[in-house]
Specification:
Blueprint (H helix, E strand, L loop, with lengths): L9 E4 L5 E3 L7 E6 L6 H12 L1 H6 L2 E7 L3 H11 L4 E4 L4 H5 L3 E6 L2 E6 L2 E5 L5 E5 L7 H6 L3
Parallel strand pairs: 3-4, 4-5
Antiparallel strand pairs: 1-2, 3-8, 6-7, 8-9
Length: 149
């Protein structure tokens, strides 16, 4: 996906097994953020920053949806533990990660593996990618989105 691309209509299923579609958000902007793993330090910081900035994001016309390859059950626990007010998509087969081009080769401690490149897509009211944030500031992400940083 790149700026100007129309996102697919079906995004996946949320923490409750409900199908999430682009058309569910017709007429509203969406912050679709991809993150590596529930309950890890960076991902928790990012989710909690978006939670804390949720009202400001909503006031600015944004809905927030997170995506990782974790399961629905993992997402339910993460949402409950962190009191997250938004849906998390369980992309267990990484198909949405791949569609958006964020399933990438990563390196950690000299080991190479495939994983999610932390990336946020700001999607306009018609489902078109308006902006891509690939240098996510996990502790200040809501401000990064609201102030085009």
């Amino acid at each position: 996906m790149k700026v100007g691309d129309l996102t697919p209509d079906v995004w996946g299923v949320n923490q409750n097994g409900k199908e999430i579609r682009r058309s569910d958000y017709q007429g509203r902007k969406v912050v679709l953020y991809f993150y590596p793993k529930d309950n890890t330090s960076g991902c928790t910081a990012e989710a909690c920053n978006l939670r804390d900035g949720y009202e400001a994001l909503r006031a600015a016309g944004y809905e927030v949806v997170g995506v990782s390859k974790d399961s629905e059950a993992s997402h339910r626990k993460f949402i409950e533990k962190q009191s997250l007010p938004f849906d998390l998509i369980a992309d267990t087969d990484t198909s949405l990660n791949q569609t958006f081009g964020v399933w990438a080769e990563k390196k950690l401690y000299g080991r190479t593996y495939m994983g999610t490149a932390r990336t946020t897509f700001v999607i306009d009211e018609n489902g078109v990618v308006e902006r891509i944030i690939d240098k996510v500031n996990t502790k200040n992400h809501a401000d990064q989105i609201l102030n085009n940083k």
